[in-house]
């Protein structure tokens, strides 16, 4: 005998189904919402109730094995109005059992864990904290983490259920709480995902301060358990940079704008003014040096980088760029520039990725492409869309393709850049 639904329709049934969805109780979701299955949109109090009922019924059907019924419900959704429904339908059309690593469809996307009016702002802030060097953004994000502990759950959903592993791991690193560290450990020490993704989780755990000194881990890699001790380092914004006076800050901004618009002479003049007024403005040396090198004046570029090292002997960008300039002719000189950085433990995300990129370039010059890939993987684990690293990784992939082995260097470089651009588009990082 069929049980009677002891609730008011449709509101109470939807509320109970929402709770059952959180508990991943597919049978209860379907039982609660079946009486609403054939209702038209006009019979519901508001249109979103109809859409949620149909979406939840489709997900319950899919999770319980009735994929054809799920498809039929989802085909009536407008893909421009409901991303979740379209994602599930696309997955079913490709015979996938879920959107991510787990073999089921979630009733809620990670972004739904946040207040709707704050979701976009918080996501943008996560990117800024994860990839930038903005102490104020870090402080603002810490306040948000304290207010919204569900951010950890959101990040875990991205990793396990939504196939957005890079962003989910970066988000957990930025959150940096014991709960976030526990989430990173669960993924790093499991067997789901690729070897590279699990190692990325371990690196993000280390980068956020979640690893004890000397701690070792048993990780699943190359189809076997292996003992691993991550390198000791931390990722975060720098609080030791000089505060530029308003006049100098304005000159720096104008100089960078001119550089971005390829007004070379104006950019050089403005950045030289910055250096004259604030000799500790290291980024001015580095940006001007990069510009001069691009225009072919390597002597002036090298001189500026050496001036920056005189101000701060451990300035990473100066050491790395000097190593890059030296390594084609003098590997030992390049290694000497990089040697002091081996003792550095605090990086911004971009610094770490650029350092690993430089080590990868050195490995390429030493004909050790496997080591180059390992170094790039470490950097991209922390900064997933670091463009030079993506392009070098793509170059290595293109160069090892036999059919392309006869192409000249420029053609290979162009192919690699297109490959990296397509990779970024596929990752949704345009």
Describe this structure in words.
- By secondary structure, the chain is mainly alpha-helical.
- Helix content is 62%, strand content 3%.
- It contains 21 helices and four strands.
- It has helices at residues 11-22, 26-33, 47-63, 67-74, 83-93, 116-131, 135-147, 151-160, 165-175, 178-188, 195-207, 246-260, 264-277, 282-294, 298-311, 316-326, 331-338, 349-365, 369-382, 387-399, 409-426; strands spanning 217-221, 224-228, 234-235, 346-347.
Low-confidence stretches: 426-430
Widest sheet: strand order? Answer: 1-2
Number of domains: 4
What is the helix/strand order?
A: HHHHHHHHHHHEEEHHHHHHEHHHH
For the largest beta-sheet, the strand count, sense and barrel status come to: 2 strands, antiparallel
Characterize the quaternary organization of these chains: single chain
Total strands: the figure is 4
Number of helices: 21
* Cα-based radius of gyration, to the nearest Å: 26 Å
Shape, principal axes of CA atoms: elongated
Protein structure class: mainly alpha
Helix content: 55-70%
- The first-to-last residue Cα distance is 55 Å
β-strand percent reads: under 5%
Average pLDDT, all residues: 89
Label this structure with key terms:
430 residues; mainly alpha; Serine Threonine Protein Phosphatase 5, Tetratricopeptide repeat; 4 domains; two-stranded antiparallel sheet; 21 helices; 4 strands; disordered C terminus
């Amino acid at each position: 005998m069929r049980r009677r639904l002891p609730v008011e329709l449709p509101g109470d049934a939807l509320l109970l189904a929402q709770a059952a969805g959180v508990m991943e109780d597919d049978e209860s979701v379907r039982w609660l919402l079946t009486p609403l299955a054939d209702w038209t949109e006009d019979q519901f109090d508001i249109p979103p109730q109809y859409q949620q009922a149909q979406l939840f019924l489709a997900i319950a059907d899919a999770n319980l094995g009735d994929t054809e019924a799920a498809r039929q419900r989802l085909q009536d959704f407008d893909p421009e109005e409901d991303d979740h429904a379209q994602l599930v339908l696309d997955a079913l059309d490709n015979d996938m059992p879920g959107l991510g690593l787990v073999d089921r469809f979630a009733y809620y996307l990670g972004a739904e864990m946040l207040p709707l009016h704050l979701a976009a702002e918080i996501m943008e802030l996560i990117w800024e904290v994860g990839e930038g060097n903005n102490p104020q953004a870090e402080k603002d994000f810490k306040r948000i983490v304290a207010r919204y502990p569900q951010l950890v759950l959101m990040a875990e959903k991205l990793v396990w259920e939504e196939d957005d592993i890079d962003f989910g791991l970066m988000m957990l690193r930025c959150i940096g709480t014991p709960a976030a560290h526990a989430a990173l450990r669960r993924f790093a020490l499991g067997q789901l995902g690729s070897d590279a993704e699990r190692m990325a989780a371990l690196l993000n755990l280390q980068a956020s301060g979640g690893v004890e000194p000397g701690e070792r881990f048993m990780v699943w890699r190359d189809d076997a358990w292996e003992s691993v001790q991550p390198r000791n380092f931390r990722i975060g914004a720098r609080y030791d940079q000089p505060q530029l006076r308003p006049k100098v800050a304005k000159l720096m901004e104008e100089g960078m704008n001119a550089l971005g618009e390829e007004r070379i002479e104006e950019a050089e003049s403005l950045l030289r003014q910055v250096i004259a007024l604030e000799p500790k403005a290291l980024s001015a040396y580095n940006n001007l040096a990069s510009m001069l090198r691009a225009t072919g004046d390597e002597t002036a570029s090298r001189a500026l980088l050496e001036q920056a090292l005189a101000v701060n002997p451990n300035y990473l960008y100066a050491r790395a760029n000097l190593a890059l300039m030296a390594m084609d002719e003098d590997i030992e000189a390049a290694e000497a520039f990089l040697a002091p950085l081996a003792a550095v433990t605090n990086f911004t995300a971009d610094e770490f990725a650029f350092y690993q990129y430089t080590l990868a370039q050195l490995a390429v010059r030493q004909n050790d492409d496997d080591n180059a890939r390992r170094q790039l993987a470490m950097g991209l684990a922390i900064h997933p869309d670091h463009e030079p690293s993506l392009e070098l990784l793509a170059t290595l992939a293109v160069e090892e393709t036999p059919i392309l082995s006869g192409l000249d260097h420029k053609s290979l470089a162009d192919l690699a850049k297109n490959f990296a651009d397509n990779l970024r588009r596929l990752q949704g990082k345009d």
